[in-house]
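Q: Second attempt. The first request was missing the SMILES, so the protein and magnesium ion are both included now.
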Amino acid sequence: MGLRYGTGPEIFTGIHFELAAGSFHFLTGASGAGKSSLLSLLYLAQRPTRGSITLFGKEVTTIHRRQLPALRRRIGVVFQDFRLLDHLTTLDNVALPLRVAGVTEEEIRRHVPELLSWVGLKEQMHAKPPTLSGGQKQRVAIARAVISRPDLLLADEPTGNVDDRIATRLLHLFIELNKLGTTILIATHSESLIQRFRMPRLHLEDGAIQVLDAPQTPSRPSLPGSTLNTAGTLGSPEKGDA
Ligand SMILES: Nc1ncnc2c1ncn2[C@@H]1O[C@H](COP(=O)(O)OP(=O)(O)OP(=O)(O)O)[C@@H](O)[C@H]1O
Ligand SMILES: [Mg+2]
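A: Got both inputs this time. The predicted holo structure:
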């Protein structure tokens, strides 16, 4: 698969990889290597200039626009620039994917505050994005991406604006989501996360991609007292029928 912007140079010169369903990978590479571009291709925000992409067993490069929303409902995304809705509260931003999927208000009231507490935003539940810090906005974006337990989670530098303690907590949230079956791909520059959470990696360099196995590991770090009640916290069993 290849990609170029306009008449610029090809930023991907024929990359080929597969992510197994249920896998967890970091996506690494220097600034400008193409991490965000690759994620946008997987989210179908743009189409490759050549080649094809298969998602959930379906060739998606040529599908009709009308079919995009149904596919996207199966994907949770954390954008590098968050893309929150400024006129909605934290709670309503996070509830949005559930409302779109037709989840009842009662379920929303049960699950959203619990997840917001987990990501440390209990106090900010009724605040709107313009009044939040960068790290707080980032956590709203993460909560919105995971609340509906998507089949695929794409996160672009999801811990770029938070301290180490919160970054670790967020990684544990992704690990719990992964245990429930979500395939996870996280773009990161953070050497400390890569070292601590020894996941396999997709590494982008010179327009090509390398799949690197997880380094041999001492056991993964665990946070005492921070196990997540996954069944409840990560949203409802009802999903969009996408
Ligand atoms: N909309 C666009 N139009 C033209 N060129 C673009 C566009 N978006 C990205 N590029 C170019 O594509 C290349 C890859 O950019 P991309 O944002 O995917 O990198 P990245 O790995 O996410 O970098 P960072 O770590 O800084 O976020 C860069 O050379 C960039 O200039
Ligand atoms: Mg980027």
